[in-house]
Amino acid sequence: MKNKHVNAVIVGAGAGGGVVAKELSVAGLSVVLFERGGWATYDDHDHDEIFSQRTTLLGNAYGPDNERHRRVRVLPNGEEVVLLPSEGGYANNAACVGSGTVSYGAMGWRFMPEDFKMKSVYGTVEGSTLDDWPITYEDLEPYYEKAEWEIGVAGDDSQNPFSPPRKKPQPMPPFEHNKEAQILESAARRLGYHPFPIPMLRNSIPYGGRPQCYRIRTCVGFACPVNAKCGTHNTVIPVALNTKNCELRTHSVVNEILVDDSGNITGVSYFDDRKKRQIQTADIVIVSASATETARLLLNSKSTFFPNGIGNENDWVGRNLQGHAYCGAYGIFDEDIYDDRGPGASVAVCDFNHHNPGIIGGGVLCNEFLRLPYLFTGIRPPNSPSWGAEHKKFQRTNFKRVGQVIGPYQEIPMFEARIDVDPRIKDYWGIPVGRLSGNLSMKDAEGTEFMAGMAERWLIEAGASSVWKTGIVRGPRPVSGGQHQAGTCRMGNDPKTSVCDRYGRVHGTPNLFVADGSLHVTNGGFNPVLTIMALGFWIGEYITSEWRKGNRFK
Asked: What's the pLDDT score for residue 58?
């Protein structure tokens, strides 16, 4: 049976797509929300560290699966390797309803005002595509607020002197510090840093009809067993479905955005859960499949009108792929600092996010999430044995004595850091797979060295007897991505140097939008999920406002 025409198709039920689905369906538009995976729960994998917690040794607990998905990466010597989703170089993002918001660490950061005008603040960076966003922090501030209150954030920005301006506090109080965070907070104050509680997309009190977090260790990398972690799967997507205007189609893989004989976007082609190819027509198409998969879909949507892929007339789709360079330091303490109060990360400093002499941008520094035993086997001082008696002794002696201060350093965007589509390799459905290539800026080396040095200083002041840095960029570094991937369909005012306009609409296509991290011109020195959610509310409101005015985006 032919699918009924709808007002809007949304590809991807993650941080951005889930929000847009709620905004459109509440406004009365008929919506089909596509998700390549299914629903995921804690009971699917419970506290299995080897299969969950992002070790990816045996696959990905929240998808995509190794059986049907592939990606190509171009090595520095030009060799191309085919990767499975469970392999690190794949730059994976989850494939389930809610996407990464099911299993993420749930830090709920707003970007800084400077993050929206990096070129104005830092000037031209040779070899880089560093630029300003076409919107400002002030434009997005009401939508950050909406995301914090509708999704749910626990925090207290009044304790952070570097916090961007806000009109309303976070809706829930911050989490109390565990033992490690208490030690680090005191040390930070002695150094003149300005510690404060990390804002978390996690219930510190009952909120939204769901219970408060009871602070178990299996958090980051796991679904929440009590539904206290706040994602789109348990907030806005249920709201959308309850309107009866939104239909969620899981295990459905969209392979092409369709174009008619006049060059108009008419809907999408997709494979259903039985591998049957189907058509869904719509007035509007919104793509929110992640920075790698959104770009891949646009590039695979070729026609007479778009021979190089939709939105790619100027070869910008898939370019400027960014993630974060995670850098910091480890420290061994002479006493136990581990008290088993999850999720672990709770204290941060924003002293080094911007305006560091000689450094482009910066980032936030935080204590780390609790690490279960397998992940801890990879934490060793330089030149330590990775097996044998000494390895085991370190594990037994220091599991509760090692602390970490770490944070995401803002990568500098590069035109050649990209994802395109491979002409030879196809996935299970016969769709050309994504191909990662290019290197990141060598300026990242200066930034990561600086940030790791500040983390080292903090741990020494806290009383660590042995400290070593981690995550410093030492040479040319291939594109990153992963759960913080961004930048491949950047927004901008000039179609020659961007893919989408300030409302996420693909230049030259009135009814095609993007609503995920692909839009980010720069990716901030923070976990980007709250910004993706805020952009979802920004774009969703624009579409519904125009729709009510009679604009059908023809």
From this structure: 65
